[in-house]
Amino acid sequence: MALEIEHKFLLANDDWRTEVQSSVYYKQAYLSSSPTSSIRVRISDSQAWLNLKSATIGNHRLEFEYEIPLVDADTIITELCVKPWIEKQRHFIARDGHVWEIDEFFGDNAGLIVAEIELLQIDESFAKPSWIGVEVTHDLRYYNNNLAKHAFKDWNK
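Structure tokens predicted for CYTH domain-containing protein (157 residues):
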């Protein structure tokens, strides 16, 4: 069984940008999103994945991910997935034995930047860099499947 353990944060400032070691562009879209789970397809450069994730609120949930052919992923996203798609640049920062993933969103979610850290154990401790702001792990608005339904650009309307 695959268990994802992560914490999500807003950013306190842009100081993280000087620490970025690599970045990758993602396009992802959802086939299904229900109160119990979500099914998404994600494309990154020359790879693609099908991902199934439980809709558990909090810092851990079930997650299963399978690589699929790129051409299939592109067709699934274009023909079968609900719009809008999620488009983002993911920046990676290795720090204090962990990897921080910072998602900078585009399209309907432009202006939103969220940092995530994945852990190996639920009670694992980690150091928060000075550029980390408020934790939003328990705020459903920041989950990608919800951003696909309720885009950041519409939050103040």
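The chain has a mean pLDDT of 92.
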